[in-house]
Amino acid sequence: MRYRIHSVFFACLAFASGLWAETKVSSVFLAGRTVEYVPGTLPLIIAAPHGGQLEPADIPDRKDGVTTRDAETDLLAIELAEAIARRVGGQPHLVLCHLHRKKVDCNRDALTGTGGNPKALATWRAFHEAIGKARAAAGHGLFLDLHGHSHPAPKVELGYLLSAEQLQETGPPLSALAQISSLASIARTSPDSFERLLRGPRSLGGLLESAGYPSVPSPTSLSPVEEPYFRGGYNTARYRSSGLDDGFFALQIECPRPGVRDTPENRLRFAETLAAVLEQWMAHHAGIRLGITERAGRKGGSE
Ligand SMILES: [Zn+2]
Fold first, then answer.
1. Is residue 302 part of a domain?
2. Domain of residue 198, CATH code
3. pLDDT(12) > 60
4. How far is 273 from 80, CA to CA, in rounded Å?
5. Within-domain flag for 91
6. How far apart are the CA of 140 and the centre of ligand 1, in A?
7. Is 224 contained in some domain?
8. What's the 234 CA to ligand 1 centre distance in angstroms?
9. Alpha-carbon gap, residue 238 to 3, rounded angstroms
10. pLDDT tens, residue by residue, 250-295
């Protein structure tokens, strides 16, 4: 039911913004309603692969790998999409897996994530086909994979496909890793050095810390030191730009639970902060101005 409310929210927002004629935002449900895709208008795709709660008995539980759900990351992804829509007047693409991680893992390859079960595979395929559609519609921009961790330190972990060990590098050895990171395409466009893009004052971690959310990497936590850290998984690697630069960059955001995703108030506060931070970060490093993107789209739209 809440997803219907969510779609109605977008519809009302579009109407209030005068976008109704050209922006019909509604959820598309796929694979027996186990995947929800909300098509967007911005060069920003938000995916939540591990927030699902559906546990149909006709799909066997997975026997290998992690099966713990990233609690409330589905709700946080919706809050984030709505917060961005309120800020800039356009909608991110949103892709949610509603099947519990016991049944499918959409942040693994198909066989690992489904164990070969045909129904789980249908969900896995629908999830990735929705991201493929979102990428085709967006043309360029950010793919953001949203997760939740339960590590002892309640930091926001930002995964750019660099390991904790690699993040301990500095200077030229660190810069040499730009091409294998998920930020390869914007490492070329950012006015900042790669090191500052990762953990300078205007890095994602720097901006989040300034707003009150301890993060790693960031100016105060340059790299994870003797603490567990998620570097970014299958989706981040799959949807970054490959060797042929297609204009996409990617990151995995792992959210702690306390103060970030544990209550509706905290989810809203974090979503609004992250929306503001992403707008600023994308404009500075990638030259993508989310509000202007939407305004340009409106000008060019049909009457
Ligand atoms: Zn996860």
1. no
2. 3.40.630
3. no
4. 9
5. yes
6. 24
7. yes
8. 11
9. 27
10. 999 999 999 999 999 999 999 999 999 999 999 999 999 998 754 4
